[in-house]
Design brief:
Chains A, B: ATP binds at residues 128-129, 154, 221. Chains A, B: Keywords: ATP-binding, Kinase, Magnesium, Metal-binding, Nucleotide-binding, Thiamine biosynthesis, Transferase. The structure is a homodimer. The first copy, chain A, contains eleven helices and twelve strands. The longest helix of chain A has 17 residues, at 67-83. Chain A has helices at residues 7-10, 12-19, 67-83, 104-118, 171-180, 190-197, 203-211, 224-235, 244-247, 249-262, 266-272, and strands at residues 29-31, 38-41, 46-55, 88-98, 124-132, 137-145, 162-166, 216-220, 238-241, 278-283, 292-299, 304-307. The first copy, chain A, is an alpha+beta fold. The first copy, chain A, has two domains: 7-145, PurM-like, N-terminal domain (60s Ribosomal Protein L30, Chain: A), CATH 3.30.1330.10; 154-326, PurM-like C-terminal domain (Phosphoribosyl-aminoimidazole Synthetase, Chain A, domain 2). The interface between A and B is large, with 78 and 79 residues. β3 of chain A pairs antiparallel with β2 (38-41) of chain B.
């Protein structure tokens, strides 16, 4: 068997020397990696900042996800948080904790995945830190520019608003369920597994939503019901999801091969599956920006999420990161 | 024995609800925690960014460091990276990975330590992320404002420059050595142990150095010799440390109680001990800003670090994060 070079053998400085060339700068990169800190452009005079962490065995398994996949996901979930404020991504930094026996190639692939996810959106990887540890941990912090607009908060929804969604729903959850069942190779399910391994967030639609006057918005990371509940609580309103199964028929169709293979309820994935990194927003007008599908209305009342005016038809509205068994995605 | 509430029992949302009130905002905090992302002021139109990670069992042990200590250190080492560019800190975000059995109070103390270290310098804790994991990992990203100045890089040193240092040297390494030897309570050594647990970085001196025209600067995080070597390589110069034992006699004196207790060489701590987070800078003039002590000169030649014109008198010039045994501080 060929020897696989590990990060402990290579050492920190040499590993960084191999990683740096994989990290293209963007137009917002004023000073990239290599000094004590990086410098990013912040032309708006404000900078939007979000941080998210992925932990091996909780958010991913190396048996299923390549370094590239993990880098991609870590970047996308952070980029989506910045876009959900209506900001254009400008750059990210990453802290990597790696066991000494991690193959060097896995770490380089992580850098490639981070770079590939951010580059098309103008977000370079401008800095980072490395440490040893028991399990792989990837902590990404992303930055964005508001281009003169007010940030779009969770708290701005008003009764009468139109609730809309852009992006995929339930595909990541379905893909993970397939992998957990050992059905990652099932016929017709490759897109769903890919949706878990390398979700594609429609970042541009979030910036369009901000330009179009979205009153509230967030990145759907923990499931439609749970994240709708966050807008409901922050805004003090009822989010009434109207016939989501009809509105999101295309999403439901995409889930059907996995539902058949697993004997599962695709509507449950649609309503509670997280990590697709689409956007849920409310608008004062029914004239929605491209990419958004109407999924309900905002009403007055004690904060709650309803489906067709009543309680949601599925149990489980997300998960808690410290009690893996409580949610829909036990890997957490 | 009283029951100690753990983060798994409390759950993520409730833990965040207890942490948020512990995080005071600063004048640069335009939007704090609670939405998808935070918003920080970046009045200069650029933002300085650095990220650093602390891993349990590598960078700290819970037996020695309280949550407050770890939060303090995580903040200080990041704040020092931003200050080393000549920037004024504005805010930080933190990703915390915690085993489910971590006491809630430890996590709250971490937040208090982060807040306490940043607040006097105008840096609020504006956001974060939580996850479960096997060991505690604290990844902090810090931001700063250049106030219209050019960033001070490692690459700007020029032959003839005066090399100077501000802050403590070797105290953190001595404090750690005392703890490792079970002598954390040794007479006269409390300041050194405190220097390891809660280092105080003279952040204001770094901003003063930038205002005074420092040509190169960095945060001394891995030891004077190793970090001087980074300036030497980046600038293509020789750093000749002139009689550092004399120049830094006050620092050497501070190390003597620990050197006596352990039978160790205090000069080795002075030259190779990391994590005090002082600043090493080069200046075109001998007229140094307050807090800086002259420690040598920059000369032409193949990049190298000399001590009194010759090779350094001690072995070990730092450590590698993946090969803990190779360096001066085996906990890494």
């Amino acid at each position: 068997m060929d020897h696989v070079e590990t990060v402990a053998e290579l050492g920190e400085d040499a590993l960084l020397a191999r990683i740096f060339p994989l990290l293209p700068s963007s137009s917002a990169t004023l000073l990239g990696p290599g000094d004590d800190a990086a410098v990013l452009a912040a032309p708006d005079g404000r900078v939007v900042v979000s941080t998210d962490v992925l932990v091996e065995g909780r958010h991913f398994r190396r048996a299923w996800s390549s370094g590239y996949d993990v880098g991609w996901r870590a970047a996308v979930q952070n980029l989506a948080d910045v876009a959900a404020m209506g900001a254009r991504p400008t750059g990210l930094v990453v802290a990597l904790v790696a066991p000494g026996d991690l193959p060097v190639e896995w770490a380089l692939d992580l850098a490639r995945g981070l770079a590939a996810a951010g580059a098309p959106h103008g977000a370079g990887v401008v800095g980072g830190d490395l440490s040893g540890g028991t399990e792989v941990v990837v902590a990404v912090t992303v930055h964005g520019d508001l281009e003169g607009r007010a940030p779009v908060l969770r708290s701005g929804a008003q009764p009468g608003d139109h609730v809309a969604h852009s992006g995929a729903l339930g595909r990541s959850a379905a893909g993970l369920a397939l992998l957990e069942a050992g059905l990652g190779e099932a016929v017709g399910c490759a897109d769903l597994v890919q949706g878990y391994l390398r979700p594609v967030s429609p970042l541009a639609t979030a910036v369009s939503a901000a330009r179009a006057g979205a009153r509230a918005m967030l990145d759907v990371s923990d499931g439609l019901l749970r994240d709708a509940g966050r807008i409901a609580r922050a805004s003090g309103v009822v989010i009434d999801l109207a016939a989501p199964a009809l509105a999101l028929a295309r999403e439901l169709d995409a889930l059907s091969p996995a539902a058949s293979a697993l004997g599962a309820d695709p509507l449950a994935w649609l309503l509670t599956g997280g990590e697709d990194h689409g956007f849920l927003a409310t608008f004062p007008s029914a004239d929605l920006p491209e990419g958004f599908v109407p999924v309900g209305r905002v009403r007055e009342g004690e904060p709650a999420v309803l489906v067709d005016g009543g309680p949601p038809p599925v149990a489980g509205t997300g998960w808690d990161h410290f009690t893996p068994g409580a949610g829909a995605q036990p890997l957490r």
